[in-house]
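Customer escalation, tier 2.

The customer says the design service returned an amino acid string that "doesn't look like it belongs to this structure." They asked us to rerun it and document both sides in this ticket. The original structure tokens are below, unchanged.
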């Protein structure tokens, strides 16, 4: 799906939700949507400065907070990085597989994992308010290239 099409979908959702999709938020959205894999806030800042020379770290962090709140991106907690989500117009369970070798991040949407996790939380009297399930290892490509 093209970045332009994703931007149009996001713009429509923001209008429906009554939130402002400012030029800076749009720029950060466009940058992260065009990025392959997870990206740090400072890498985004470097790229944003090409569009907005006066951009500072708080500029990016405020935009990222907005994009997170709208479900347009996910935070990869263990990498302190951000990942674009093409499924932002629907609520979905999310689990991440992270390759320690090449940095590939694969987003999964497994309802069974989500339900089992929720069940375990409930059985332990725990209410989940924010969830991040991340697993680290090696992707198929790095695993096949690894010496035996």
């Amino acid at each position: 799906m093209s970045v332009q099409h994703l931007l149009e979908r996001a713009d429509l959702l923001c209008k429906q939700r009554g939130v402002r999709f400012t030029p800076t938020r749009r720029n950060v959205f466009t940058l992260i949507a065009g990025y392959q894999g997870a990206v740090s806030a400072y890498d985004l800042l470097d790229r944003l400065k090409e569009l907005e020379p006066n951009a500072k770290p708080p500029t990016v962090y405020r935009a990222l907070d907005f994009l997170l709140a709208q479900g347009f991106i996910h935070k990869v907690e263990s990498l302190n990085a951000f990942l674009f989500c093409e499924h932002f117009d629907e609520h979905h369970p999310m689990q991440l597989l992270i390759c320690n070798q090449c940095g590939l991040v694969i987003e999964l949407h497994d309802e069974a994992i989500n339900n089992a996790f929720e069940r375990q939380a409930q059985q332990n009297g725990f209410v989940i308010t924010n969830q991040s399930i991340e697993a680290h290892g090696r992707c198929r490509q790095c695993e096949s290239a690894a010496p035996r």
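Tier 2 assessment: The sequence is consistent with the input. Residues 43 and 58 are 14 Å apart (CA to CA). The domain at 3-84 is CATH 1.10.10.10 (Arc Repressor Mutant, subunit A). Sent an explanation to the customer and offered a walkthrough call.
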